Fold Response regulator receiver domain-containing protein.
Amino acid sequence: MGCNTEKGFTRNNRILFVDDEENVTSIMNMMLEGLGYEVTSHADGAKAYDDFTQRPDGYSLVICDQVMPGMSGMDLLEKVKGVSPETPVILCTGYTNDELQEQIKKKSVSAVLTKPFAMQKLARVISTVLDNAYEKQEYDRAS
């Protein structure tokens, strides 16, 4: 699997993953690499954002935890979208509340993964998000 689909979405095969928990990062790196993606991981939202701004075309997708010290996942999403509005962002969270649900509705969150999740669900969500990004890109080009 990967970013290349039958539809031709070939931007690249790189994912920026952000989570402050080292064990989660280690497991996600293995899962994502097992799915055929190249992964750059950061434990800090600010460092991830700095990396992203250095090469915004370098990533097909950003996956980030919601609850992190310093910069929440929603804060990182806003910053990423400010640099590259077309880059899809998947938010991971162990829990949601009404306030977070409202933010998710208002912001350009591509998908939400509720922890814990299986590798198959991760693969399905990534595939759907990237397919949707490709279709939007093609629609925008045709318009």
Q: What stands out?
A: The two ends are 29 Å apart (CA to CA). The chain has five helices and five strands.
